[in-house]
Amino acid sequence: MSSLGLGIWDQCIDLALEAYNAGSMGIAAVIVDAKGDVVAVGRNQLRDGLVSCNSIKMTSIAHAEINAINNIPWEKQKDWELMLYTTVEPCPMCMGAIAMSRIRRVVVGSADPYAGSVRLLEKDDYLKQKGISVEFAQGKVEEICFVLHYLSLRRRLKPEHPIFRSLQERYPAYVKKMDDLLSSSFLSGREIGRAQLMEVAG
Fold first, then answer.
1. Structural element, H or E, at residue 171
2. CA atoms within 13 A on the CB side of 61
3. CB–CB of 72/78 below 8 Å?
4. Taking a C-beta distance cutoff of 8 angstroms, is the pair 132, 120 a contact?
5. pTM here?
6. For a surface tag, which of 11, 115, 129, 197 has the fewest beta carbons within 10 Å of its beta carbon?
7. What is the phi-psi region of residue 5: left when phi exceeds 0, alpha when psi lies from -120 to 50, beta otherwise?
């Protein structure tokens, strides 16, 4: 599969797309070391039992970040310079797992203003003293990650779910664009290809 020219995000997006097309949430995480070498990867696998990079699947804790952290090899588990890329802002469970690991830098593709827990890093004294830094991607990476997350949510949740109100407030232009596409036949299939994803997020 050809590169999108987005560095580490290429691998994140490919894994998130795999997760979405398998029926799980379109979310993925990649962990790198100080040299930028990939140490571990994971994807959401809540709803599919496919052979993948994960050892945790078909259970409520089979989130992308949990699987990526679980996949860190033993010789890297004491490395204090690991950095985690994730396509969607981590939930409280995943942020807790990050805090309990040696990861101290997180890069987020798309914010989750409803279930995301970056705000806890400043509100919880225990998490605050961990010194975890977080940055949010922008531009094309942000939109691609948003698209996969939004499509996953629309597939599983009713329109009145409060997460959609939160996303509307954070990403009004993205939400309108996706709702317009979902009302057309462009996204009528159960799966989405990479070229189609790039067109949606173009």
1. none
2. 12
3. no
4. no
5. 0.95
6. 129
7. left
